[in-house]
């Protein structure tokens, strides 16, 4: 009888292990995947490389071709939550990589949720120093939530006309 109980106990332990092991493996996969959202975010270095690439292209094709070059979520200038923006020195959006409907709009007086005139701050910064970083609160296109964002912007002159080229990084 003791031998039968011992065999039964061993069988129950084996079945418990076979049931628990896949659950533990699934939990490990979920825990590993929880770190994955970091890869859905662009970095400052990637944003600056995108600005370099966009500047090189715009110096070849000009500002008039920017809307088409930046347009669409499948363009070469769309990388997760990174996208370029080209504005003239008055604050008119020439090309917006995420929301093309903003093209042609004067955004100089646009303010973030805290009332910060971030476009004006960026325009002033690039006019003064040739480049600037402006941090503000904006709606994250991946989550729909308000988040901190830093716009890396630089002055760009195309055919003698000044522009601001920028890429933002959500924090």
TrEMBL record:
Membrane topology: Multi-pass membrane protein
UniProt entry tagged with the keyword Transmembrane helix: yes
Highest taxon, organism lineage: Bacteria
GO cellular component: plasma membrane
InterPro entries: sCache_2
Pfam families the record matches: sCache_2
Keywords: Cell membrane, Membrane, Transmembrane, Transmembrane helix
Cellular compartments annotated: Cell membrane
Principal location: membrane
Keyword Lipid metabolism: no
Domain Single Cache: 75-155
Protein name stated in the entry: Chemotaxis protein
Organism of this sequence: Azospirillum thiophilum
């Amino acid at each position: 009888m003791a031998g039968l109980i011992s065999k039964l106990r061993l069988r129950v332990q084996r079945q418990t292990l076979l049931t628990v092991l896949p659950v533990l493996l699934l939990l490990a996969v979920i825990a590993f995947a929880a770190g994955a959202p970091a890869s859905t975010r662009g970095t400052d270095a990637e944003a600056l490389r995108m600005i370099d690439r966009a500047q090189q292209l715009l110096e070849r094709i000009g500002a008039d071709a920017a809307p088409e070059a930046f347009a669409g979520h499948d363009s070469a200038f769309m990388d997760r939550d990174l996208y370029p923006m080209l504005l003239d020195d008055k604050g008119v959006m020439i090309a917006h990589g995420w929301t093309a409907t903003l093209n042609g709009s004067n955004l100089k007086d646009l303010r973030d949720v805290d009332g910060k005139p971030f476009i004006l701050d960026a325009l002033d910064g690039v006019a003064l120093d040739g480049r600037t970083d402006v941090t503000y609160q904006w709606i994250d296109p991946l989550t729909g939530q308000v988040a901190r964002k830093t716009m890396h912007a630089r002055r760009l002159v195309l055919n003698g006309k000044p522009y601001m080229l920028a890429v933002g990084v959500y924090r």
